[in-house]
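The passage that follows is intended for readers who have already worked through the single-chain material. We present the inputs for a multi-component assembly, then the predicted structure in tokenized form, and finally a short commentary. You are encouraged to pause after the input and sketch how you expect the pieces to fit together before reading on.
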Amino acid sequence: MSQKTTYIPEPELVQGNHTFGSITSLVGDIVETPAPRWWYIAFAVSNLLLGLLLAMLAYLIWEGTGVWGLQNPVGWGWAIVNFVWWVGIGHAGTLISAILFLFRQGWRTAINRFAEAMTIFAVMCAGIFPAVHVGRIWVIYWVFPLPNQMQMWPNFNSPLLWDVFAVSTYFTVSLLFWYVGLVPDLATLRDRVKSKLGKMLYGTFALGWTGGNRQWQHYEKSYLILAGLATPLVLSVHTIVSFDFAVSIIPGWHTTIFPPYFVAGAVFSGFAMVMTLMLITRKIYGLQDIMTINHIEKMNIIILVTGNMVGFAYIMEFFIAWYSGFEYEKFAFVNRAFGPYAWAYWIMFLCNVISPQFFWSKKMRTSITASFILSIVVNIGMWFERFVITVTSLAQDYIPASWGYYSPTWVDILTYVGTFGLFFSNFLLFLRFLPMVAIAEVKMVMPQADPHNYDEDGNELPKESH
Amino acid sequence: MSKNKQKTYWRSLNELAKNEEYKKFAEREFPEGASELRDGYTRRNFLQIMGASIALAGFAACRKPVKKIVPHSRMPEYMVPGRALFYATAAPTGSYLTGLLVETNEGRPTKIEGNPDHPSSKGGTNIQHQASVLDMYDPDRSRGIRHNGESSSWNDFLQAANTSLTSSARIAFISEPNSSATLNRIKRQALQKYPNAQWITYAPFSEENQLLGNQIAFGRKLRTLPDISQARVIISFDADFMGTEADSVRNIRAFADGRRMSSAADDINRLYVVESNYSLTGSNADHRLRIKTSQIKPLLRAVVAELSDNFSALSAFRGYSNALRNREWVGILADEIRGNQGSSLVMAGADHDAETHALVAAINDAAGNTTRTVNYAALPFTDEANQHEALAQLVTQMNQGQIDAVVMLGGNPVFTAPANLNFAEALRSVPFSVHLANHVDETSRASVWHINRAHYLEYWGDGYDYTGVPSVIQPMIQPLFDGKSEIEVLGSIVSGETIDAVEEVKSTWRPLLGSGFETKWQTLLHDGMLTGTEFQRASVSLQASGLQSLVQGASDTADDGLELVIKPDPRILDGSLANNGWLQELPDPMTKITWDNVALLSPSTAEKLGISTRRFGQTDVDMLTISANGESFTIAAWVVPGHTDDNITIYAGYGRQGVGRVADGVGQNAYALRTEANPLYTSNIGVTLASGSYDIACVQDHHSMEGRPLVREASLTEYREDPRFAADMVYVPGKKGGAEHPVTLFEAQTFPERQPQWGMAIDLATCIGCGVCTIACQAENNIPVIGKEEVRRGREMHWIRTDRYFSGDERGDAKVVHQPVTCMHCELAPCEQVCPVAATTHSDDGLNQMTYNRCIGTRYCANNCPFKVRRFNFFNYTKEYLTTGDDPEVIQMAMNPDVSIRFRGVMEKCTYCVQRISRGKIDTKLETGNSIKPADGTVKTACQQACPANAITFGDLTDDQSVISVTKRNERNYVMLEELGIRPRTSYLAKIRNTNEQLA
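Having made your guess, compare it with the prediction:
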């Protein structure tokens, strides 16, 4: 290596010359001080939407799935689209916490708590749909392998059954992972809050954390193990969701590229969602020092990479359809781009493939406005991707006489809108009562956590004013 | 027999049926504590009543033996609870009968089948027959006698009739065409008793023109009896003999038999159709000429002129010429007729005028077809006068106060009579009017008396089939609502007191059957017909004067402007069946529209009128305001490829009001534009694009096969060159040589060691696409009617559908193929693999089963079905269907007890009629002791049994000699989507068109 090369240190992950104490205050004060007025307004709106969701679900269950726009060729519509979309969003959290953790990406600490919470709430939103979309929800428990006197087991060949396991496992592990990471911070809050109830609740959930050396040793080990467990799940859950389609024989569904393509798409949309939420909260709560432009740029790079993977998959699907020589498959893809649902296809293509290309420019990557707009555009695009896959394939498959055009009803639309109520109600509660940044972990990536007085060559470092 | 007892009995059961506790009782299966039943109905009493109802439907004279109620301790003969019984009867359709077998379950008729021994049916039925059982259980049927709109009684009516109908009264009897010998006997009595009376036989669509046409040609009113089975070339001038024309079941069967090919060496008939709208018959033509209705007669004249050089009988037409004389088709049709003397058959649509029929008769006779492919018979029940004119005269007389009473036996002249007559107005000026009708319909509301009519499954009657084979109509059940038949009403009017219909019928038959009457009578009832008897075939000779009049009077209608044609609806015919949900929900065989009539027109005409092209998925269509004959209305426009340009065709029978919850408000009343002068078509009508749009529930949104090898067809020549064209049309990966299946990693799932293994084949060469399979399936499998809105949303529930594809030039002579599609029972069924709860699985005998109880309704199976044959209960359709109206139990009686009904949220689909298979297996096991392999042909699916074309074959694939195995070895056999490797058990036999090379 030439003498001229110099080591360019990463930009500091926490800016603004914070001390450990000021970080704790920065995050802890949000929970400890009374909630601002906007929070109550936002919470009220979210609750209204949540109420809407419950009303729509009640109506659905009372009347039957006929209240949706489903029909003969199209047995899955918005419900499944929403399910896949929310599950996809739920990907970012565990990816950030687990995979980036294993890869020792220190920048993850600023956003991991936040992203994990988002994951859990997104999976909750997602989980509603497969449950309520069935015709007879009162026997939905038959999908679980419960021993019964008839020795009637579920069909283990069915991808829907795999879904049940995949999503529930993912949810469980994500929740556990999130909670384990929360323990040290809950202890911090326990020590800081003034109210008796708060002390009791935080104390209970802090599980007697004192910050002792052995506790930290156990904590780090278990966190590492959970990260190891969660990592394959990041890949598996959307792989299995993609199997719902890939295992079938419907042209446009029956595609081997689906597992990597779905995972890439999920990371894509998950990061976009994290970005949207992060840009809002860092502004409102003044967390710009922790969630820096540098973080935003890194996330935008991931969005760019996964966006291109998705775009590659779109094009590859066309190639394979042509290369297969299978006329039905060829038709399915040409029809997507030029058939009755072409509008949806091109919205998808524009949002998912064209729009991330802006992030090749550093100026765009580091622009908060651009990031915010594109993050929303990406999620619109990803919703349409699922719509295109689910609906266009079913609407026009093998037998032209059976073709039908699917459109949603108002119940479909309001149910989807309602899930945002569930998501934001939970998310606002999270912002209000839990530390939205992993305080302990952020501290670990601050220079103070690594008090070396000499550089690699043994030279004394210039003193900083900490 | 005691009349009173009868009445009380049925009133009681009606009350019982409406009683909540009875409902619980019936649901419970084993009644606990009969004391729970309300006052007076002890358990024993109940069983007696139930027993009696069984006995009623019992053998032969259902009604007669019920002088005493039979307790269950003495089992009626043949009666095993839970087992269906079949009785022979016949269904009257206008002036002819079709022989039927009716399945009854515990005294309830539930399913109509064709009588395999009866020449009119040979086991087949048409959609109206299949749906007729629902008509009987129509909860909207009239339930009593009404006098000026108020509820009244039969005795009051009789009293009134006796008072008003004095022997000198000027009475007009208006009846529907009716072949009943008994009715005609009483009719003669009536005309004797009332010397000033007149009798008019009126139906909006009748055979009157044909009879009059033969009168021109042969000098006598004769019925034409076509024998399609003897014809090598069939030329139809707008005769929809597979659809709305008379005797369709026989004609379809004869046509299909002439198309059946066991190998490429077989010869098949050739069908030419000349018509304006795309009819079912036209869709099965080898060659079809689309031409305006007004030009059909001129074309026919041109053909006659072309033939006149060859046939001296037609010499009157020598030198005749008109604008159509040089059309290519004139020469071609003439060539075919010349080349197939004695084996060609020319037919004309019943609604074409008498001259058209006369021309057709002349061609047939000149070409030597008489006695070979066509016969003629004088009907024992024809009125001499021209009935169209007679009705018009009557209306004039009514308006002038020259009529004292009108007695209408069926029919609905207020709705159907030519609009210019204004029959309703005329009827109001008659002091005493009686109308016998199923519903309190348009005519009943305008009459003084309304009498509720009995259904043919409820009354005693008789009549002749189209060719004159006599049959007795025997009731399957006591009249549900105490209705009366034509015989009862007319007989009681004539005799002044209530008559006993069965005695009347018997007294008609006594002289016919001769000695040993009772035995012969029982045999007659059992067989359903008197074998070996037919109408006397008339020997005919062309009347020179008749032909002369055809040339002299020839004034060809100018071929300009838009014409409007009004035809009977393929499903509800003249509108009398409009309150039948099965028929309304059956997709029209050509347009696939349900629950509506539309203005049918061609793509070019649509463009000319400024109608926007319908997008894929668009259900609201443009509307047209059509004015003709001084009236106008607005109706949805529907574009049909292959329709004639400058022609608008509308089916009549819709737009009924105040009839019932099914019929009301469906479609537009086309009769409003139909006049005496223009009964079939009106030229130069006014059409403008109306504002707004109209929602249409069409079950097929896309009409092109997109070049996919779904229906495989070839011309006869191509087929002979490459007999395996169908099977070889698609490359199936891994399928080597003549292997049955492609190479697979999966274990062979045909269970060869388990017998039987069920399979089906559908012959597209004989399937005509009529849709009777759909209704037969609906009746057999308790499929609910879901209504227009749900159909519009694409949720039709039919287990078997008929896909119809247009091919060729959409703006020109588009061709049509029909393909019935139902569950293929794939051996490697994609649906089974994806169900998370294993609700759909494979049975040992190769059925793809659907376990409703286990289904949670993910719809994944339906998504993964490449044939899209699975149907989902998006709502609680069955409950809604079975609990409509104030008296839901009535419609519940139509249900097949062997098939469970499905709750909301579960998937359903074709089962290959598993209940019939199980019945067959049980019976075989009972007979043999160990085998569960029914003999070939003993298990028939409902669709197969109903099919008049015999296009569906079903049976055991493990039996090498079974019909299904033989059929599947046919070279034309192919499996749809075979390349997917799912191994469907249902296969198709490719369609063959017998094309004329000159037109190809």
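Commentary: Chain A has a mean pLDDT of 88. Chain A touches chain B through 53 residues (CB under 8 Å). How closely did your sketch match?
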